[in-house]
Design a protein that fits this description.
single chain
Length: 71
């Protein structure tokens, strides 16, 4: 039951927004647009590390460099 994406338990384990049987996934993706959400959740964006932020600040224009804060 936990491996079946057609159940609420299985869809939560698979990272889906709502249950959809395996056989209907292609049809749901083909028919759903921006009005109807797709079953899989979008990935969470990764936050840049402090080192990446420091390196990015070096390349900023001096005008915009004053708007950033050191963390």
């Amino acid at each position: 039951m936990s491996g079946d994406p057609g159940t609420y338990t299985g869809s939560a384990v698979a990272g889906m927004n709502y249950p959809v049987p395996w056989g209907l996934l292609p049809a749901v993706y083909a028919l759903s647009g921006d009005d109807y959400p797709k079953p899989f959740r979008p990935p969470e964006p990764e936050k840049p590390s402090a080192e990446e932020m420091r390196r990015a600040r070096i390349h900023l224009s001096p005008m915009f460099r004053t708007l950033t804060t050191e963390e």
